[in-house]
Amino acid sequence: MPKASKNIQDYEILTAQMIADHQQQSRRKAYELMATPPEHRGIPCYNIGATKRVRKVDYLRWMEKRIVEQVKR
Questions:
Q1: 56 touches 14 (CB < 8 A)
Q2: 3-state SS of 1-68?
Q3: Beta strand segments in 1-73, E
């Protein structure tokens, strides 16, 4: 049975796997971005126990900021 794709638009809180799928990168890369402080271009997140979560609005804002930086280069 194929794995169901999770569309980030359906959720308010995102997991590392959801971010990895959206960016078409590995889950490890998503965790690296979440471990990097936002002031150093990391994704703003918070911990729930041993797991990390990202508010969708923060992730979309982070994505928009990265796009603007790419355009300015």
A1: yes
A2: CCCCCCCHHHCCEECHHHHHHHHCCCHHHHHHHHHCCHHHCCCCCEEECCEEEEEHHHHHHHHHHHHH
A3: 13-14, 46-48, 51-55
Q: Are the beta carbons of 15 and 56 closer than 8 angstroms?
A: no
Say how far apart CA 11 and CA 66 lie, in whole Å. Answer: 21
Closest CA to 21 of 35, 34, 7: 7
Q: Can you give the pLDDT at residue 20? A: 97
CB count in 10 Å sphere of residue 67: 10
Model pLDDT for residues 10-59, shown as the tens digit of each residue = 999 999 999 999 999 999 999 999 999 999 999 999 999 999 999 999 99
